[in-house]
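Hey, can you fold this one?
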Amino acid sequence: MNEARIDLAHAVALGSIDDEDHDALQEVLDGEDPALRAEFMAEVQETKEVLAAIAVATAVEPPAALRGRVLAAITAEQPPVAS
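Sure. Predicted structure:
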């Protein structure tokens, strides 16, 4: 698989494809070569797994006060409810 297709697989895994990438993706998925399609999908899956592992490894617990601040901000932005 060439570098452009690997980059496309990474963009697909990240969910960040634009119209041009979408056309290239359709070309890969609709292509005649099932081996290339399988290799592409394997690259997408492997990238997703690596991203998930990184997310787990770097996750941190949010500050305890964050929930209260978020809820207060939401409440402050809501218009009053007519009774």
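The chain has a mean pLDDT of 90. Let me know if you want another pass with a different chain boundary.
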